[in-house]
Amino acid sequence: MSELQPIHAAPTSFIKKHIFSTDHKVIAKQFLWAGLLFLALGGFLAMLIRWQWAFPGEAVPFVGQGMFPSSDGSITPSGYTKLFTNHGLIMIFFAITPLLIGFFGNLLIPLQIGARDMAFPRLNMASFWVFVLSQLLVLASLVVPLGAAAAGWTTYPPLSTNIATPGLGQTLMVMALFVVGISTIMGAINYIVTIIGFRAPGMGYFKMPLSIWGLWLASILNLLFVPVLGSAGLLLLFDRLFDTQFFIAGASGNGDPILFQHLFWLFGHPEVYILILPAWGVIADFLSFFSRKPSYFYKGSVWALVTISILSALVYGHHMFVAGMSPMLGKSFMLLTLAISIPAELLFLNWLHTIWKGSIRLTVPMLFSLGFVFVFALGGLTGIHLGTISTDLYLHDTMFVVGHFHFTLAAATFLAVFAGIYFWFPKMFGRHMNQRLGKIHFWTSFIGINGVFTGQLIVGYAGQHRRLYDPYEYTFIKHLQPLNEWTTYFAFFLGVSSLVFVVNFFWNVFRRGHDENIDNPWEVGTLEWTVPSPPHHHNFDTIPTVFHGPHEYSNPEVKKALGKDWLAQTEKFSFSKQDDS
Amino acid sequence: MTKSNNQFKRIIGVLVTALSVLIVGLWHGTTALAAPKMETGIGLPKDISVDGHRIDWLLGVTNLFVTILFIMVCLWILIACIKHGKKHTSDYDHGESKHTFIASLTVSALVFLIVDGNLFVNSMIDIDYVFWDFAGVEKKPDLVRIEINAHQWAWDARYAGPDGQFNTKDDVVTLNQINVPKDAPILFQLASVDVIHSFYLPNLRVKQDVVPGRITHLWFQATELGDFDIACAQHCGVNHYLMKAQLTVQNSDVFQEWIRQQSIDSVRLYETAVKEGGIHEKRFQETQWGWPWKKSL
Amino acid sequence: MTSLTNTVSPVQAMMIRSSSAMIGMVAFIASWAMLFGGLFFAFGLLRLGSEAWPPVNVINLPIALPAINTGILLSSSVLLMVAMHYLRKGNERATVHALLIATILGIMFVVTQAWLWNEMSGLGLNLSDSHYGGLFYMFTVIHVIHVVVGIGGLLALTINAYRGRYTQESHLPVRLWSMYWHFVGVVWIPMFVLLFLS
Questions:
Q1: Which of A183, A193, A264 to mutate to test the interface with C (most CBs of C within 10 A)?
Q2: Strands B226-232 and B197-201, sheet pairing
């Protein structure tokens, strides 16, 4: 903890201020733009996939002629493999990661712990520009000869090696993953060091907002497991570029394809927690803020987060139950996988207890938070089916898996991202977003999200497997066509509902003026709301001293003495009895 | 479904505003639900195996638990939002008493023991005694052994023929068609020459990845006559969706007769090739694949 | 106890910077250790899956030269420790000398490694013929890339030490690059054992 932090003079030139900025608030916005841009791209690809499942082989309206001229506007089988591959990779690494880690991390960490900036501001800037480089590699991979990456987001070899996917696009995509990994590690080092060293006086680890806990643990997981993906990527690049056969087996090599799966999922399972931990943290805070009630069993939540982070590294084998692993190994992974539900349940109970007997304000961020709890419950509960071997024999690689991870990874994370954007928008831009449009956006996207992913769950349960260009080639899937078509309408509905957000967001970013009641409109006590909106270049004129935890709401004594139901973390207040454990 | 109807739906799907899309979707959904196939279509496909009911039961029980938990969560949120709204005075409760700690952990542990415990115990039994008990299956008397060679984008199957040995001239080899006798255990050994595939039989509730460089196993016992789909469940390239085969379940005597006939043909084919010699024999041998049956552990 | 801290004295700023930088370096090394851990894991599985190691009909790697090279890299690390020792004592001249020798040893390591590649590929050990060759070239190339980065750092240190930039109290870059260089050396040991001794 340090009250001694340097102040750097605010830059004056446009380039230093808005482009090559070392200010964490500017970098947060840059990650937000970059992430939203690729979110739109990934979402567009999703719409095309949905079109194909509803009307296989029919010409895509509007964009078809331009995108698939050789087939008169309809998606080709090879085009389709590229669509779902790039949809997955773009969403996970180039949309969710920058939004949850890059945007939330940069915006919140210094502001919520009382720091003037990140520990290494220039490293922070480099992290963003390396990220941009990786995005450019992705864009390049889409347009090079022999086509974009097509081996699925999991990039399993031998399919992803030259024997089956010779295109330069696949190579560029693997490189992009390696580069985005470097950017992520740079960010992670920065976040970890900043949280360890730059907390304001009094800001003990157990006084940090849960969002900071989520980001911190996610950063530690990033730091340790992204390099494992890096090692898999390096081996794969050697196979692709230098004709080694580390992963090639069968007729053309004596390597080990399962080796890749071990490395991939040793990274891949922590990765899903990396993406959900910040969301859990942010939502746990919001539930407390808008129930005007302390976060229930805060320390329990923290320990649940820590336990889940540790377990996340030990359960990856459940992705490989049917890959031919030894039964003994399979059983151990099964037990560990199921064990993760204990801390997850504790966390969930804490959320439910937090809103119980509160004084719930259904603001836009709160609606998104409750929506998050709803979809995460669905996503988490459907995960139980997939945690054991015998049920996985049937469900593995079906749309049920797709529905499950979209509920947790897509629905939940994006509801959290939107909750965060609505919540911190005033802090970032000094203006309010339109709450009515926000509510419309919530309800429409909530309906859309649930329609789409429930549809996936149902067809998956009925046996439809993944990544089929034309599912109706199979007689046992034929009758699911109407259901898939219906799901597609929900997807389009979801796509249209995003426009509500786009309008609301851009209008308020670019309109002039500075709104009233902007410094602390939600009446919450975390540190970022003790400074003006938007904050000065150096955040805090004086590094604050922290006295309370982040969730001091509805304390009767405070109400009596101050006439308000909340207490800023920096407000000195002596309670009559010491309940500060 | 008429063409104009399709056209109409397509335009609706993209153009019309959010609300009207929803209405059309609902309308279409209900008409679709009225079609005869849909009524039996939601839910698991027809089970035609001796042991599939184990998975179905486990899925069903888990569905029940999960539905109860989910409804509880929804009711909880709903009631909280209605009862503990803006007008309600919030409790000042950090929930950090020992009582809380014990209560929360008890509930978590209870849910874990019941829902996950049930899954774990039954899944252990299922895989140990049924689905992965390949050594036990090997001992069954009327066992049928089949070797599968998976490649982009087809399934080759090989039967040992009357001599019971694989990789001999009386082997029966088929493409995308697997005949099996009803009520007999069928044991597969699976290999791939190119990329990873996954041998998926939805009606028998089993699935096994086919990984190049190693041999994997899968077994089942069918209880119903008829034709069923076999699919590749692992993305294996452009034509992944076309990598399907047909499983034909036959009465035992029909199956035996079929394999006898096929085997005679195989031997004749082989002998013709040998007689012709030279390139014919070579070509014949090159198209052959198969391996001596591997002992299951 | 709140104090107005709009400015921080240079000494204080340096202390903050140095403790952050040390934690950051530890985090970086932990991260990179996982990268190499993944590669070693791959080595283990690929080797377990091979029938013979080294495979038949493949040129075997020598032991003597890599062993000497290992010695070179490790003595470079030792000399860096010596440099730190002199720096703490305030003997700037000896520091420069130790740094210079450490750098030269690092360069020698790279040269020897390049010579070994040349030799082995001349003998017919190829990247694409076997895992034995593939892993050898891959591991050593990735390691050498890290060594080259380290040499760049050591060169900068030597030049800056020569110019008298580092004092008894203030020599953060030396400490950071030392940590990095020791890590590069430590990672080499399992690599050496796996590639040449096993």
A1: A193
A2: antiparallel
Cβ of residue C29 closer than 8 Å to a chain A Cβ: no
pLDDT tens-digit readout, B131-161: 999 999 999 999 999 999 999 999 999 999 8
What is the interface pTM, i.e. ipTM, of the complex? 0.93
Residues 6+ apart with CB under 8 A from C191: C36, C139, C140, C143
A15 domain-assigned: no
Tell me, yes or no, whether A569 lies in a domain: no
> Is C7 touching A (CB cutoff 8 A)?
yes
Which pLDDT score, from 0 to 100, does residue B6 have?
52
Rounded Cα–Cα distance for residues A85 and B6 (Å): 28
Tell which residue, B213, B269, B218, has the closest CA to residue B247: B218
| Residue B29 banded pLDDT, cuts 50, 70, 90 | very low
| Residue range(s) defining the domain that contains residue A317 | 28-562
With 50 as the cut, is the pLDDT of residue C6 above it? no
Q: What is the pLDDT of residues B6-26, one digit of tens each?
A: 554 444 444 444 444 434 444
pLDDT (tens digit per residue) in A121-174: 999 999 999 999 999 999 999 998 778 999 999 999 999 999 899 889 999 999
- Model-level pTM? 0.92
Q: Which of helix, strand or coil describes residue B209? A: strand
Q: Considering the domain boundaries, does residue C1 fall inside one?
A: no
CB pairs under 8 A between A and B: 358
If one counts the domains in chain C, the total is 1
Chain B CB contacts of A493 under 8 Å are 18, 21-22, 25
In total, how many domains does chain A have? 1
Token digits for B91? 């409790």
C-alpha to C-alpha distance for A264 and A272, rounded to whole angstroms? 12
Range of the domain at C113: 10-197
Residue labelled with tokens 């067809």: A459
CATH of the domain at A343: 1.20.210.10
pLDDT for A5 equals 66
CA distance A571 to chain C (A): 13
Q: Do C6 and A541 touch (CB under 8 A)?
A: yes
Burial class for C33, CB neighbours closer than 10 Å (0-12, 13-18, 19+): middle
Which of C1, C4, C5, C23 to mutate: most A Cβ within 10 Å? C5
Amino acid at C163: R
What is the pLDDT, as a whole number, of residue A6? 64
CA distance A112 to A203: 10
Half-sphere exposure of A406 (CA within 13 A, CB side): 22
B127 near A CB under 8 A: yes
Per-residue pLDDT, B21: 40
Q: Is A531 helix (H, G, I), strand (E, B) or coil?
A: coil
The CATH number assigned to the domain holding C171 equals 1.20.120.80
Residue B18: predicted pLDDT: 40
List pLDDT tens digits, range B193-238.
Answer: 999 999 999 999 999 999 999 999 999 999 999 999 999 999 999 9
Please name the helix (run of DSSP H) or strand (run of DSSP E) that holds residue A148, with its range, or none: none
- Cα(A111)–Cα(A45) distance, integer angstroms: 35
Count other Cβ atoms within 10 Å, centred on residue A305: 25
pLDDT of C3 over the 60 cut? no
Q: How close, in Å, is residue C173 to chain A by CA atoms? A: 15
pLDDT band at A4 (very low <50, low <70, confident <90, very high): low
B37 at interface of A, judged by CB pairs closer than 8 A: yes
B240 chain-A contacts, CB cut-off 8 A: 81, 467-469
| CATH architecture, range B145-286 | Sandwich (2.60)
